[in-house]
Amino acid sequence: MRTPTTLLAGVLACLALAAPAAVAAPREPVGGARLGTRGLVVGAGAPALPATSAAGWLVADMDTGEVLAARDPHGRYAPASTLKILTAHTVIDRLDPAKLVQPTWDDVNVEGSRVGIVQKMRYSVKDLLTAMLVVSGNDAANALATANGGLRKTVAEMNAEAKRLNAHDTHAANASGLDHPTQLSSPYDLALIGREAMRSPVFQAYVATKRYYMPAPGKKTIYLASHDKLLWNYDGAIGIKNGYTTKARATFVGAATRGGRTLIVTLMKTNPRYWPEAAALLNWGFKAKAAGITPVGQLVDPTPVPADVAAVTSKPGTAVAPVVTPKTSQSSASGLPVVPALLVGSGAAVLGGGLLRNRRGRRRRYRSKLKLDLPL
Known about the structure:
Elements lengths: L3 H15 L21 E3 L13 E6 L4 E6 L11 H9 L8 E2 L3 H4 L14 E2 H10 L3 H10 L3 H14 L22 H11 L3 H7 L3 E6 L3 E6 L3 H5 L3 E9 L3 E10 L2 E10 L4 H17 L5 E2 L8 H7 L27 H25 L11
Antiparallel strand pairs: 1-3, 2-3, 2-10, 3-11, 4-5, 6-7, 8-9, 9-10
């Protein structure tokens, strides 16, 4: 009869055989080696950079993807409502803009900034997308998730899309951007997501909207004015989205076109009065492009959507999440060996119940504090 000790020895021996001979070397940061720095990276001979209070930022050419300069480009920070760019990008081709949505109690009573939708009314997807992107309505974001099949499904699709875009610093935990311990992004990833979203003329039209009237009970209307201060104050601004929570501080993704060039700027963990910093970085970027400076990195292209998935997603309301082809490498992204499922299956079965109970316990104990996504 085999003892537990001999069984353990056998499992360990199998794991040793399954492990690669050498640990894989760390992968180069997405976009180029220079973007792996935690500090400032800028090309030689560039104009003097303006001062900024942002912990992380990035300026890039939106057309070519060339990164002109950055600070802590892959640093992971709370995204606040800039996450709504990913929300909109994920659902915009899945939902018919004319579809009417009746929000739930949870949708209309979400924390933070709200446009003021009510349960007894139905709203078009167009109205909800406008409210989410123009005035950062968390209630509108949740109602869109409801229309898309629920919050859990929508968040899963958002994370799948972030992976397809190679935005590996990004993890979504909700549709609104309200603070959550696992919800993070980076200046580089926000530029990737913003650049891809702006390829859609429909998305561009939403984020370029300065004023909008939304239906309200009693045949009244709600007047919406864009919270994107760059859109009101910067010549050539074309969008896209600001955010603020007490944990994230101000976050921003903006774009502008001048002289036939379009640049994108991202700011994370910065001052609530973010737009002068964004304007100064954009001014610097246009000068740097004119001077012909050498880029310090690249906004990479997304993984192509398989043809069968693209055919489905082309019809609003019937889309499915992008299919991500699994890697065949025997090591994970962190360089640790991948253990065959057969070897770990029995252990997972034993531990699963206890872990699930533990996670549920943590969920019950966790009560998020009110974090306002304020108009700035």
